[in-house]
DNA sequence: TTACGTTTAAAACAGCTGTTTACCAGCTCG
DNA sequence: CGAGCTGGTAAACAGCTGTTTTAAACGTAA
């Protein structure tokens, strides 16, 4: 059995270690020794550790954006100008997210990486993701806007991030939570189980009644 | 006005740097030089970097658990055996969380730390928090159980973590999100604003309809 | 074959990491 | 007085970090 490409071996090993321990806690020597690759190969092929991190993300996000754009194209064609319901939009996103890493059976890794990217407050990664993949997100939020015309602009913005928090937080900490759930409720949950549970919660969150107008601070722009 | 204690100076500086850059990315030399304290002082007073990290958390969590227990005591006395409504429980928790760091005006730091603690998949911190502060959480979930008798055990467990994800995720990434919101919607949000927006969403999420039993509207992959 | 660019290998690089050591100031108490 | 303690200091420790350098092996084309 021919070993995969050196570049591929590095990426495969790096994404697992990054997901397990974080970026700063994973050294290039950890990666290269486990991948059975020479240390210098990383700098030769990727240039730097930062670039390697970005490459790990790109390997997930590039196919994701491509398929998500395609899925949205299909939806817009199907609905032919009519408003796409919110549930359909959310379902489509979930399907695409689940679909992309399925080939490598590594949804867990993907979600952990997203969680890490978010919890890295400052730095190159957030900028990189924003710059390279912000447009897909914009397109999605535009469609969500059309699907929820009754929501004020700012409210929709915040609610989208609320549910984003729920999903990333839950799926990125899945292993730890699953251990607790299994111990306390003797119930083994799969990722698919979890998404089934997430759906009604997310929909309810987006459709929640508007908050009371601010009482102890300036009223929001109405 | 005399400089604060060496121990306090270390803690004050450490919590800010940890919140800004994470634990691994913050060296003891970063902390001690900014705090104008000798490098060895950290190991002298705390023993190790790990212990310093735990001490930073303890300074928030110890007062929090104390007040939260007190607040729950008051609630149980007030309701005298009757079921405490879910909204009241959530409101009480929010108030306590807001109350604790108000003295140092550092709610933001507190939430960032919680987010970091959660995104650290493995390691000492999760164990430490679980061991030292798990009992308050258990008491709270017991009360939530009584307030939501219609929810299956496992469903309630997951929904609590869903909303926990929303809150921690949003508040710990507050600065970045606030910048976007301000730029796009010209609206400045305070933490209190955000909690006002969070309330109906969280309540709706907890009260969402139960998911379809193991339906398969999602493609079967994996 | 020679020649060439690509890929791997091992070693060295300077710099930073957490921790420990040895020492000193100032204090209290016998 | 000196012993003993506490808090603070500078220096050194061994080890790991990302990156670069040097050398060798490789496959392919002339």
From TrEMBL, chains A, B:
Q: Which UniProt keywords apply?
A: DNA-binding
Q: What superkingdom heads the lineage?
A: Bacteria
Q: Which ranges of the sequence are annotated as binding DNA? A: 27-46
| DNA-binding as UniProt keyword | yes
Q: Which Pfam families match?
A: TetR_C_30 (PF17939), TetR_N (PF00440)
- Domain named HTH tetR-type: residues: 4-64
- Please give the InterPro entries that the UniProt record associates with this protein: DNA-bd_HTH_TetR-type_CS, Homeodomain-like_sf, HTH-type_TetR-like_transc_reg, HTH_TetR, PsrA_TetR_C, Tet_transcr_reg_TetR-rel_C_sf
PANTHER family attached to this UniProt entry: HTH-TYPE TRANSCRIPTIONAL REGULATOR RUTR, TRANSCRIPTIONAL REGULATORY PROTEIN
Protein name in UniProt: Transcriptional regulator, TetR family
- Organism for this UniProt entry: Franzmannia pantelleriensis
Lineage at the top is: Bacteria, Pseudomonadati, Pseudomonadota, Gammaproteobacteria, Oceanospirillales
């Amino acid at each position: 059995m021919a070993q995969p490409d050196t570049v591929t071996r590095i990426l495969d090993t790096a994404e697992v270690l990054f997901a397990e321990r974080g970026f700063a806690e994973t050294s290039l020597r950890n990666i290269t020794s486990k991948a059975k690759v020479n240390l210098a190969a990383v700098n030769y092929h990727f240039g730097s550790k930062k670039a390697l991190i970005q490459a790990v993300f790109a390997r997930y996000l590039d196919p994701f954006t491509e398929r998500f754009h395609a899925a949205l194209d299909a939806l817009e064609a199907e609905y032919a100008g009519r408003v796409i319901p919110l549930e359909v939009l959310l379902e489509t996103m979930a399907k695409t997210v689940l679909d992309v890493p399925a080939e490598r059976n590594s949804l867990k890794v993907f979600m952990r990486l997203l969680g890490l990217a978010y919890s890295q407050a400052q730095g190159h990664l957030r900028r990189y993701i924003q710059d390279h993949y912000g447009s897909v997100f914009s397109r999605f939020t535009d469609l969500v806007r059309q699907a929820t015309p009754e929501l004020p602009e700012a409210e929709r913005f915040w609610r989208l991030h609320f549910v984003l928090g729920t999903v990333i937080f839950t799926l990125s900490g899945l292993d730890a939570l699953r251990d607790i759930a299994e111990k306390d409720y003797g119930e083994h949950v799969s990722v698919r189980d979890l998404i089934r549970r997430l759906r009604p919660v997310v929909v309810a969150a987006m459709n929640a009644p508007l908050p009371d107008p601010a009482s102890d601070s300036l009223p929001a722009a109405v």
